[in-house]
């Protein structure tokens, strides 16, 4: 029997999921979560750095997704200073770092798809 099918459902932080794939997609799913995690995998970044590296994301979406990733314990938000302007840095938690092999696999697969069926395009 597959591990993900041992019970009728799986549970994390009080939330029930039909299977482990559903749990994983809740944590990583959507258009931007995996992209944000990808950009944080090598080093902590400030909000403005993430905005520059992911220009297609809106400020509101980036802010909401970072809050969700922080709530899910994948990203750590550290504030430096007491008075504005404060410095805020985002980094992967140990739990978030456990997703790096998954992010690498997604990246490798995406690169292969583009090589075989698409093209890499430079912005003009």
Description of the molecule:
The structure is a single chain. This protein is α+β, with helices and mostly antiparallel strands and 124 residues long. Helix content is 48%, strand content 16%. The strands form two sheets. A three-stranded antiparallel beta sheet has the order 3-5-4. A two-stranded antiparallel sheet has the order 1-2. β1 (10-12) and β2 form a beta hairpin. The radius of gyration is 17 Å and the shape is flat. The N and C termini lie far apart (52 Å).
Taking all residues together, what is the mean pLDDT? 93
Please outline the major beta sheet: 3 strands, antiparallel
Helix coverage percent: 40-55%
Helix vs. strand class: alpha+beta
Spatially, the strands of the biggest sheet line up as 3-5-4
Uncertain regions spanning at least 5 consecutive residues: none
The proportion of residues in beta strands is 15-25%
* Number of DSSP-assigned strands: 5
Order of helical and strand elements: EEHHEHHEEHH
Query: Which shape, going by the Cα principal axes?
Result: flat
Radius of gyration: 17 Å
Give the end-to-end Cα distance, rounded to a whole number of Å.
52 Å
DSSP helical segment count: 6
